[in-house]
UniProtKB/TrEMBL annotation:
Residues 7-188 form the Metallo-beta-lactamase domain. This is UPF0173 metal-dependent hydrolase Arcpr_0036. It comes from Archaeoglobus profundus (strain DSM 5631 / JCM 9629 / NBRC 100127 / Av18). The keyword Electron transport does not apply. GO terms for molecular function: hydrolase activity. Pfam families: Lactamase_B_3 (PF13483). HAMAP family: UPF0173. Keywords: Hydrolase. Belongs to the UPF0173 family. SMART domains: Lactamase_B.
Length: 224
């Protein structure tokens, strides 16, 4: 699988299918591509905040790619004309051979615009397409990460380290202890001033736990 970081919490996973997660591109000062340059088969959204829902609607309609989201958010997007697959925590979608499991996250999730709309629950995903990849979404560390590690055995964990809105580097280290992945990619940092962090410092501490840390610049990829 080829994994590309598109800034903030947005990743493109290219295995047997092209999957984009949390496509916040428009308005993202670190985004290396525009939404019209994205061509995918499936879109995963962890929650309805603008820096995660992002361009999901526009990409979905142009690519005719379904949006996977927690049920309440899927209903909201379906009313806006999107093809959606509404799931809930604990469920697994088999999308033409690619397994997408929805797991818990600890974070708020309402859609904030001209009015506040319930977006259900913030979630994470485990994508199994030859390799098991866990995208934590926006979350604090929580003990059920141990279960995610035991059940899904993710080889790669995409973890927020920005603090303020999510885990900090310190708490992300505890997440690594619970998940026990082989590879960790930090995300959700340095997009805006409140989440400024030094990923190299995080890498030094995380690699003491026996994991490999891959620091990507927006637009960079690695294969696993």
């Amino acid at each position: 699988m080829k994994i590309t970081w598109l800034g903030h919490a947005c990743f493109l996973l290219e295995g047997t299918k092209k999957i984009i997660i949390d496509p916040f591109l428009t308005g993202n000062p670190t985004a290396p591509v525009k939404p019209e340059e994205i061509d995918v088969d499936l879109i995963l959204v962890t929650h309805g905040h603008g820096d995660h829902l992002g361009d999901a609607e526009a990409i979905s309609k142009r690519c005719k790619a379904p949006i996977v989201a927690v049920y309440e958010l899927a209903v909201y997007l379906a009313k806006r004309g999107c093809e959606t697959i509404g799931m809930n925590i604990g469920g697994t979608l088999d999308y033409e051979g690619v397994k997408v499991s929805m797991v818990n996250a600890v974070h708020s999730a309402d859609i904030v615009g001209n009015e506040i709309v319930s977006g259900g629950k913030a979630v994470g995903y485990v994508v199994e397409d030859g390799v098991s990849v866990y995208h934590a979404g926006d979350t604090d560390v929580f003990m059920d990460m141990q279960l995610i590690g035991e059940i899904y055995k993710p080889k790669v964990a995409l973890l927020p380290i920005g603090g303020f809105y999510t885990m900090s580097p310190k708490t992300a280290l505890k997440a690594i202890e619970l998940l026990k992945p082989e590879i960790v990619v930090p995300m959700h940092y340095n997009t805006f001033p409140p989440i400024k962090q030094d990923p190299e410092e995080f890498k030094r501490e995380a690699e003491k736990l026996g994991v490999k840390v891959v620091i990507l610049k927006p637009g960079e990829s690695f294969e696993v």
